[in-house]
Specification:
It contains eleven helices and eleven strands. It is an alpha/beta fold. This is Lipoprotein.
């Protein structure tokens, strides 16, 4: 018996070794499979580099004489929103390692104001931050500039009293892809508007679609009664379609201020913008009514810092 047991020992060792080898083979992923998994993970990770654009509507909606508001003038609300955006941008920037910095923030109008002073002030609000220029001095400079320049821009526009309208439709058609999209970034566009769009040089009509939206147009189209939604859908009201793909853009619209004479006005405005954004494949968007900056700060913060 002792002799037979000794003969089996080498056989048992060989079987054990073979099982170990086969187990190890099972656990090791092929290099090609590993690369595929890593690549997939990389694609699905949202970029941590912010590219924030602000589009300002300097039409007569900001005129404190024509549209006064006792709680806070609408142009002052805009200034508060811009400060909140810049504050959140700086918080994001301060939390990054220097070698990872690749952030942008800038401000646009459509059309550009004829006042050269306004254009000079807005150019100073364009920043491109990288590891080569990031410093406390730059962060302080951005904070100071965004604290004072927006207010000066609005005050100059009101003083000029030359409200040419807001050509937001044309901005999306011709400029948004070039100005607001950067590869390898989270692209966010903040639009400050009352929700209406009008410019004398851009008045397109295609069926029931238009490049503009005014309270007069909503009344004319009889979208001021309880059946507005059904009418809008069946008769295809909305903004004229634009052939752009904005699947890499997030949009936050702030300041919607509907005509109080129509209880359905805000719903109609929201429906126009919703339909338009969906047709352009906008990645993510939110549309918010005008409110005090202190109330809007949380919404701005969550939209920028908490991507879905």
């Amino acid at each position: 018996m002792r002799k037979t047991y000794k003969l089996f020992i080498p056989f048992i060792i060989a079987i054990t070794a073979l099982i170990s080898i086969l187990s190890c083979k099972k656990d090791v992923k092929k290099p090609a499979e590993t690369n595929k998994i890593e690549a997939k993970t990389k694609i699905n990770e949202p970029s941590n580099n912010l590219n924030i654009s602000l589009l300002l509507d300097l039409s007569d909606r900001i005129n404190p004489v024509k549209y006064p508001n006792t709680a806070m003038e609408f142009y002052q609300r805009d200034v508060g929103y811009i400060k909140s955006v810049s504050k959140v941008f700086l918080e994001h920037l301060s939390g990054k390692k220097m070698r990872q910095a690749d952030e942008k923030i800038e401000l646009f109008f459509e059309p550009s104001p004829s006042n050269s002073e306004i254009n000079t002030l807005s150019n100073k609000l364009k920043y491109s931050i990288t590891k080569d220029n990031l410093s406390m001095d730059l962060i302080n400079n951005i904070e100071n500039t965004y604290s004072k320049n927006p207010l000066e821009i609005y005050e100059l526009a009101i003083k000029d009293d030359n409200y040419v309208g807001s050509d937001t439709w044309r901005f999306f058609k011709n400029k948004v892809s070039d100005y607001c999209l950067e590869e390898g970034h989270r692209n966010i566009l903040v639009v400050l508007t009352d929700g209406y769009i009008y410019h004398k040089d851009t008045q397109l009509k295609e069926g029931n679609r238009s490049s503009y939206l005014t309270p007069q147009e909503i009344r004319k189209n009889k979208l001021n009664s309880s059946n507005w939604g059904e009418k809008m859908e069946h008769e295809d009201y909305g903004f004229v379609k634009i052939d752009v793909d904005l699947s890499d853009l997030e949009i936050l619209v702030l300041g919607i201020n509907p005509d109080p004479k129509n209880v359905y006005e805000e719903d109609v405005i929201n429906a126009y913008w919703n339909k338009w954004f969906k047709e352009m494949n906008v990645k993510r968007f939110a549309i918010k009514q005008a409110d005090l900056p202190s109330n809007m700060d949380k919404i701005i913060r969550e939209f920028i810092l908490d991507p879905v």
